[in-house]
Known about the structure:
The protein is mainly alpha-helical. It has helices spanning 3-7, 11-45, 50-88. 89% of the residues lie in helices and 0% in strands.
Amino acid sequence: MSCEDQSQPDYHKKEKHHKHMEHLGKLGAVAAGAYALHEKHKAKKDPENAHHHKIKQEIATTIAIGSVGFAIHEKHEKKDAKKEAKKQG
């Protein structure tokens, strides 16, 4: 390997990294969404602590939305890395 090869990023490796991070973002969205539904169910079953469960539900929903945004961001990063890999050959 020459010095020129070391200074250029490995776009295939970047693409793989972004794909992995995209999958983690999707997994986070699913997990947070499931937890939000769980808390919604608990709020109905436990009227004494319903407010507490509603707050947890809203937090989990917000986290799920953030995870979806992260997954979308990583998908675009993966697409850019793929384009750069094609340019490099």
